[in-house]
Amino acid sequence: MTKNHSEEIRRRIQEEATRQFATRGFSGTSLETIADGVGIRRPSLLYHFGSKERLREAVLEELFQHWKDEIPRVLTAATGEQDRFDATIEAFLGFFLEDPNRARLILREALDRPEELQKFLQHHLTPWSKIITHYIRLGQRLGLVGDRVNPEAYVIQVIVQVIATTAVGYVAAAVFESEVRQSREAKVAELVRMARASLFLRPSPSKEVEDNG
Amino acid sequence: MTKNHSEEIRRRIQEEATRQFATRGFSGTSLETIADGVGIRRPSLLYHFGSKERLREAVLEELFQHWKDEIPRVLTAATGEQDRFDATIEAFLGFFLEDPNRARLILREALDRPEELQKFLQHHLTPWSKIITHYIRLGQRLGLVGDRVNPEAYVIQVIVQVIATTAVGYVAAAVFESEVRQSREAKVAELVRMARASLFLRPSPSKEVEDNG
DNA sequence: CCTACCGATCGGTAGG
DNA sequence: CCTACCGATCGGTAGG
Q1: For residue B79, what pLDDT band results from cuts at 50, 70 and 90?
Q2: Which of these, A75, B39, B44, B138, has the minimum number of CB atoms within 10 Å of its CB?
Q3: What pLDDT was estimated at residue B43?
């Protein structure tokens, strides 16, 4: 009884905190405005999360856990080279498009606490990024991927690109007047086109391509 | 005499504020720590810049002015298609590589005050970004640039990529262990390679290419 | 350029 | 889950 209600209010606090931390930043958000958003008083919030710092940790932990759960589901799915590329980048993009605040939180962590984010990336993402570079090198041996591609640097660039575009891409779009301003879909489509065109040697190979003589 | 000294201390305050705003954010920085960094007291700082908000405006104005001055110098220089591409992206990248805090400040503005940044981009960058898309369309007519390139979306993606990579690229590099971690140069080289490979149809055309029959 | 001081807001605690 | 209260820190002002 009490427990269900307590978990529910905890969830609502964490949800509100996620939104406010993402849009105004950690130091730009006060516990007062979070409590207001939930409809309770600040000391009540502090009963559920002992301190502002603990609330921040809970928000990030949920985000990272969600991300970690998503990765293996994606990488183990697809089969062919092109297939694998499509599935990976679409799932990766989809995760952040589903809620751009995820990308904003990560970008803010990269700016505010770079060392801590690096530790998380190193411990939880390294095995998976190594798998991706392994497949890129396989593609190079098969003659599908250009030799001038630097697999590690390529993966880093795509990660940065996906997160930055979903977080603040709409702001950058203001370099054009509204008549030609690009929709979110157009920007995402161009991102995928660029990632693909700068990886594969041929524009859109069929799945059976195996002979490169 | 007094004026020279006053201008000098103003410069030092602005410099220190630029560094602290970029690394800790506007709301994460107190006037006290800025004054400390300069070696004066907070009320003395407030004599030069009437308020924290005015200091922020001065910091951003300097950055934006510097950027605006740089653009025409670059775009009017180069001649050929490939030349123009190299000169533009190198100068654009160089501006942020020279001081990554510039990229961090812009990224923070995009997160903290998106509407204001959009206004700046719209008023001061639109003419120049239109020139770039004009040249991309010229390249498409000449058969040098692929038809599937969306000129506006491409420009937006490259802008986002350059700023995000120079601001926080080194953090993302932690997805690999230190043995294979990429140097700044490797990441920048890959960024340029990706931008080029996803724009031009042929890998590295010679400069004299003008006949597309 | 300083010291001294201001009200407002911050995160957090006591006690119920 | 609340009211009442805490010290610390915030940006900013007075006055010299």
Answers
A1: confident
A2: B39
A3: 98
Nucleotide nearest to A46 (CA to C1'): C12
Angle CA A105–B195–A163, to nearest 5: 10
Q: Any CB–CB contact under 8 A between B152 and chain A? A: yes
- Taking the Cβ of residue B185 and every Cβ of chain A, the question of whether any pair is shorter than 8 Å is answered with no
Listing DSSP states for B29-51 in one string gives --HHHHHHHHTS-HHHHHHHSSS
Determine contact, residues B153/A182, Cβ cutoff 8 Å: yes
Q: How confident is the model at residue B203 (pLDDT cuts 50, 70, 90)?
A: low
Distance A40 CA to D2 C1' (A): 9
Q: What is the pTM of this model?
A: 0.93
Q: What does the pLDDT look like over A73-121, one tens digit per residue?
A: 877 776 778 888 988 999 999 999 999 999 999 999 999 999 999 999 9
CB contact under 8 A, A176 and B154: no
Residue in the block written with tokens 């497949």: A135
How many C-beta neighbours within 10 Å does residue A8 have?
10
Whole-angstrom distance, CA of residue A122 vs CA of residue A47: 33
Asked if A121 and B175 touch (Cβ cutoff 8 Å), the reply is yes
- The 10s digit of each residue's pLDDT in B142-167 is 999 999 999 999 999 999 999 999 99
CB contact under 8 A, A175 and B161: no
Contacts of A108 in chain B (CB under 8 A): 111
Q: Which residue has the tokens 């490939």?
A: B82
Backbone angles phi, psi at B145, to 5 degrees: -115, 135
CA proximity to B125, closest of B72, B73, B198, B59: B72
Q: 């939180």: which residue's tokens?
A: A105
Q: CB of A38 within 8 A of CB of A16?
A: yes
Report how far apart, in Å, the C-alpha atoms of A47 and of each of A40, A122, A200, B213 are: 11, 33, 54, 75
- Which pLDDT band holds residue A203 (cuts at 50, 70, 90)? low
Give percent of chain A above pLDDT 90.
Answer: 78
Q: Which of A153, A170, A180 sits opposite B182 (nearest CB)?
A: A153
